[in-house]
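= Paired protein data =
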Amino acid sequence: QVQLVESGGGLVQAGGSLRLSCAASGRTFSVGTMGWFRQAPGKEREFVSAIRWGDGTTFYADSMKGRFTISRDNAKNTVYLQMNSLKPEDTAVYYCGVKRYLGNYRASNEYDYWGQGTQVTVSS
């Protein structure tokens, strides 16, 4: 089992920034990829970004490229999502997930563990 705890969400004005953190504990050696997804009310969970734990390769949804940056701290078993130039449409609950095996990192149903989520609200 891997336990994930997200933090860093909050209320921010449009154009502002937030940094989300996701700390992993438990069987962290089984982590292959860590990803961030978000879910707005009435919408499906949407891929945001992912990072391969081993080599640090990063992936982004097209709409987040240039605004969001994912990074990791292996020593702390923590992944970060730096979000800049936030827009009201970025408002959602942001979830951190762990995927043990290779595959489609954009597919939420391929992730094995999830955190409880952290709310991000961007006001206009």
Notes: The two ends are 40 Å apart (CA to CA). The first strand starts at residue 2 and ends at 7. Residues 33 and 52 are 4 Å apart (CA to CA).
